[in-house]
Write a structure and sequence with these properties.
Structural class: alpha+beta
Order of helices and strands: HHEEEEEEEEE
Helix content: 10-25%
CATH class: Mainly Beta
Radius of gyration: 14 Å
Number of strands: 9
CATH superfamily: Peptide methionine sulfoxide reductase
CATH architecture: Beta Complex
Distance between the termini: 34 Å
Length: about 140
Amino acid sequence: MNLLPLSSMDTPSDEDLKKRLTAEEYAVLREGATEAPFSGEYVHTDASGTFNCKVCSNPLFTSDTKFDSGTGWPSFADAIPGSTELISDNSQGMSRTEVVCAKCKSHLGHVFDDGPRENGKRYCINSVCLNLEEK
């Protein structure tokens, strides 16, 4: 996985994260794993608010950009400007674009060019990476 090195002093150590996160959350956020489709708590949520990074609380996506892609993961048309970084990912025999948190560099998911909105983007994000701060 092409995770960038951690540079923020606000980011907990991997040891602290292993204590705070579930095994699945740690595997996805820190090791680049993927949760099973249709298993995440935010796949079908319609609540209004902001989706924040589970590791560092960085605001990442707003509910007004969320849509049902039918893929089994929460999908967003766009990220909050400056909240994420995109990294070329050629793992698993595919050419994709990985999405990481700009603040703590945790893996969030991938972005694809098959979204239904004006920009054509579909940020396919693992629910276990997110905390929803409802309005």
